[in-house]
Structure formats: structure tokens, C-alpha cells
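May I ask you to review the protein record following this short note?
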Amino acid sequence: MDDSIKRCTAKRKTALVIEIIQGKTTVSEASRSFDLTPSEIEGWVEDAKRGMENSLRANPLDIREQYEKQLRDLQEAYGEAMLELRARKKASGPAGCAGRELIRRIQQGLLAEGVAVSIAKLCTWFGIPRRTVYYKPVKAAPKVDPRFAEPIKKMIEEEPSFGYRTVAWLLGFNKNTVQRIFQIKGWQVRKRAVGMRPRIQAVPSVAAAPNQRWSTDLARIWTGKDGWASLALVTDCHTRELLGWHLSQSGKATTAPRSSMR
């Protein structure tokens, strides 16, 4: 590059850009040598590339048309970004939507506001494959063989508490087949609710004197060759004295009353 050119004229900029394009120097070296910022030099290089591209066109654009085209591109990019932002705001609605329902809901919401956005663009914005939206299941509805369904229905109408295992065993059917029919027809036996249930409020057991209140307890004891046995104890709540006991091999409900007789 001619060192006699000291100012940043068009000729000096052109010479510097040509050297960078030819690989004789780099942007960082040029910025250190001529006390320029790298972003400024990179801007010159981009302007030069656009100018060369425009000069090689069949119908070259003038400088004003180039800037107008850049402005239109920026406006389109800004409008698309704002449209994507509106679509993402609509996507932040109820959680748990699948990809297909999400895209359909956003598209319908934008259409209600007078904005038409293609499914392809929405899928690009949200990273969802288009085949997920366009997919249509072809699986046929499940069919139930009447020779299985009729005897099953007759039995559960007579005995509503029977589950699919009991029905399958009594009818001699495969239990998986019976379970599948139960699921399709909605004949499952509803389970009782699982969780906390209201209980009677517990109050402390207080005995101010002997023989006011007794308590019983039941324990399982290994007796060797006779196996397990049930030991019922009766104690006084005030003195903690053992009042009676009974050892039983059966552990029936009558074991505790018998302990008070000893």
C-alpha cells in the first residue's frame, strides 16, 4: 500500500481492503498499524464485498437503492422478530400442551388477531418438526369380540365386585384378554380412595387412682416347636401393675377378654 497516502481516503481504504482480501495482512494487523478499530475495518471489507457483488449484477443498483434494500431487509427482520415474540407470548399459556396442539393453538390465536403465520414458520420458531403437526393417526379403533364381552358383562352384572382376575378364572379366559376388555368398556372395579381419613381425636389416658382404667396389649411370641403364639396382657393404667395374661395359639378376638380372667 502506498505510504504517501496519509488520510483515510477512498483510495487508501480500497488498497487496505484489497490487501486483506488477498491475505497479505489481517484485520488485527491493520488495526494496530493504522490505529483503527477492527470493527471499522471489517465494515469497509463488507461494504467492498457488497459493492463488488452489485457491480457484477446484470442490473446494478445505485447506492440509494442498496441502502433502501438494506432498510427493507431490516424492517422485515424486525417485523418477523416481533411476530415471533407475540407467538412465544401466546405459547406461554396453559402448560402441558403437546407439539401439535401448541402450534395449532398459537396459529389460531394469531389468526384471531388478524395475523396469518404459516405452520412451517411456527415450527421453525419453536423447534418442532412439521411432521409432528401434520401427522394423522391411522390406527383403527379397538374392537371387542362379542363371544368374550357378553359372558363377561353378564358375570359382572351379577357380581359387580369381581375384578378381571376373578372373572378370567371363573370363565376360563385369558386374564390379559379380560383386562383389555375391562379397559375398553370401562368396567374396572373402582378402588377406594387412598389417603388420610378423619380419625377420632386422641385424648391422653389419665388414671388418678388404681382400678380406674385398664389397658390391654397383644404380642406375638415364638414358642419353639408349637410355633407362634399370641400373648395378651392387662395392666393398670395408674400403677402399671400386670393384672392378667393369656397365651393363645389362635390369637382370636376372645384372647384379650380371657386375659382379664387370670
In short: The longest strand covers residues 214-222. The longest helix spans residues 63-91.
